Amino acid sequence: MESNPNKALTETRFSDLKPPLSEPVLEALAEAGFEFCTPVQVATIPLLCSYKDVAVDAATGSGKTLAFVVPLVEILRRASSARKPHQIMGMIISPTRELSAQIYHVAQPFISTLPDVKSMLLVGGVEVKADVKKIEEEGANLLIGTPGRLYDIMERMDVLDFRNLVILVLDEADRLLDMGFQKQISYIISRLPKLRRTGLFSATQTEAVEELSKAGLRNPVRIEVRAESKSHHASASSQQLASSKTPLGLHLEYLECESDKKPSQLVDLLIKNKSKKIIIYFMTCACVDYWGVVLPRLAVLKSLSLIPLHGKMKQTAREKALASFTSLSSGILLCTDVAARGLDIPGVDCIVQYDPPQDPNVFIHRVGRTARLGRQGSSIVFLSPKEEAYVEFLRIRRVPLQERKWSDDASDVVPEIRSAAKKDRDVMEKGLRAFVSYIRAYKEHHCSYIFR
Ligand SMILES: Nc1ncnc2c1ncn2[C@@H]1O[C@H](COP(=O)(O)OP(=O)(O)OP(=O)(O)O)[C@@H](O)[C@H]1O
Fold first, then answer.
1. Per-residue pLDDT at 376 exceeds 60
2. Pocket of ligand 1, candidates 225, 373, 375, 379: which has the most ligand atoms within 8 Å of its Cβ, to mutate?
3. 67 C-alpha to center of ligand 1: Å?
4. 401-424: b or e for each residue (b if 16 or more CB lie within 10 Å)?
5. Average pLDDT over residues 33-55
6. Distance in Å, CA 149 to ligand 1 centroid
7. I need a labelling partner for 81 at 20 to 30 A (CA). Which of 18, 234, 276, 452 fits?
8. Displacement of CA 392 from its chain's centroid (Å)
9. Among 278-287, 425-434, 440-449, which range has the highest average pLDDT?
10. Which UniProt keywords apply (predicted)?
C-alpha cells in the first residue's frame, strides 16, 4: 500500500475509520483531496461518532475543523426523522466572524450530502433583523456562528426548536471565554437538551475551559495531540503528549529591540523578505491604521501589497481584506488579534509580532497561522530588553524561542520612515491616535507586557 508523504498525516485513511464513515462523506472527502487523517482526526472522529463527548487540545493547523465537521455530519445523518424547518439539530460556535465563516465554507460540501439539512451562518456585523427574516423564510437546522449573534437569535426567535439538538461544537473554546462570552455560552447551553454530544476544541487549554468542560460535557474523553519529535505515526490511541506546543516546521525567533528602533527593524525585515507572505500583529487597531498608511509611502516597499485588517473596520471591508490577502502569493497583512485564531490562510511564510501579546496562548495562535499541516514557516517577535522574561516563560511552555541577530542595515531606512510619517496631518493624527491607544492599552493591562 502506498504510504503518504506528508509528515503531518497518519497512515490511517478516512475509509479505515471505525465506525465507518458514510459513502457520501467519504466521497466528499475524496473530492476535496483528503485521503489520510491527521492525528487529531484519527483520535477524535471515531469517538464523536461513537457518541462520546470530547475535549480536544491539538496544535494549530493540525486539522481540527474536519475533526468536528465530519462526525457532526455523520451524527446529523443518523439523527432520526424528517427535519422540520426550524428544528435545530446542531450548532458550531466560534469566537470570530471570520473563523465562523471559514468553518461554514469548509463544512458546506459535507453538509450538502444531507439534503434535508439547512445550515445558516450567524455572525455580527450584519443586521440581526435580516438574519431573523432569513431563518423565518428559509428555516435552519444547523447554526454556525459567533456567541453574541447566536444568543441574540435564540432570545428573539421562539420559533426555533432546540429539543432535538444532537451535537454542539465549541471551537477555540478558551477564546470564547476570554472574550467575555461566558454569559452567552451559558445561556445557549442552558437552552440545549442535556442528552447531546458536545465537542470542545482548542489549541490552548485554560482553567476556564476546564470549567466549561465540566459544565457542558458528559464524561468527556480528553484528547491531547502535540507535534511529535521523531515518528509521525500516530496510533489510533493518539492521546500522546509529545514535545512541542507549536508545529514542528515552525522556526521561532525573537529580536531584542528598544521601542524606538522597532520601526526601522520592521521595515528592514520587510525589504529583505519582499517575495514572502507575511502577517504582522500589532497591539491596537489604531496602530494597524497608522502603519497601514506609513508603510505604503516608503519607496523601498512600493511594490508590496499591504493589507490592513482589524475589528473596528466595517464588516464588508474585513471580508474584502481577508479575501485579498488569501488570494495573494506574497504580500503583507497588518492586523490585530482579530486574525490570530483559527484562520487557515494558504501559504503564509512568516509571522511578525511587532508587539508581543499579553497572553501566551495568543502567541501560540498567532504563530500558528504559518507552518500549517506539516509545512515550514518562521516567526519573529520584537521584545524590549525589559521583556526578557518573556523568552523564559515561553520556553517553559514548550515554545522554544531563538535569538535573532540585530540588523545594522536598518538604520538606513530611518530618514525615509520619518519623512513618510510626517508627510501630512492625516498621518500625523493617525500616529498620535496609535500612540494614545498604545498608552491606554498599557494602562488597561497594567502592563509591562510580561505575562502575569
Ligand atoms: N486529512 C487531511 N488531509 C489533508 N489536508 C488536511 C487534512 N485535514 C485538514 N487539512 C488541511 O489542513 C489545514 C489546517 O486545518 P485546520 O484549519 O482545521 O486546522 P486547525 O487545527 O483548526 O488549526 P487552528 O488551531 O489554527 O484553528 C487546512 O488547510 C485543511 O484543509
1. yes
2. 373
3. 9
4. beebeebeebeebeebbeebbeee
5. 96
6. 26
7. 18
8. 25
9. 278-287
10. ATP-binding, Helicase, Hydrolase, Nucleotide-binding
The answer, yes or no, to whether any atom of ligand 1 lies below 6 A from the CB of 344, is yes
Comparing CA positions, the residue from 178, 215, 182 lying closest to residue 198 is 215
Look at residues 40, 38, 12 and name the one whose alpha carbon lies nearest to residue 202.
Answer: 40
Give the model confidence (pLDDT) of 4-17 as tens digits.
Answer: 556 789 999 999 99
Question: What residues pair up with 214 in beta bridges, in sequence order?
Answer: none
**62 Cα to the center of ligand 1, angstroms:** 5
Q: From the CA of 96, how far away is ligand 1's center (Å)?
A: 17
CB of 375 closer than 6 angstroms to any ligand 1 atom: no
Q: How many angstroms separate the alpha carbon of residue 202 from the centre of ligand 1?
A: 13
pTM of the complete model: 0.87
Residue nearest to atom 1 of ligand 1 (CA): 37
Pairwise CA distance, residues 348 & 369, whole Å: 7
For residues 198 and 217, what is the distance between their CA atoms, to the nearest angstrom? 6
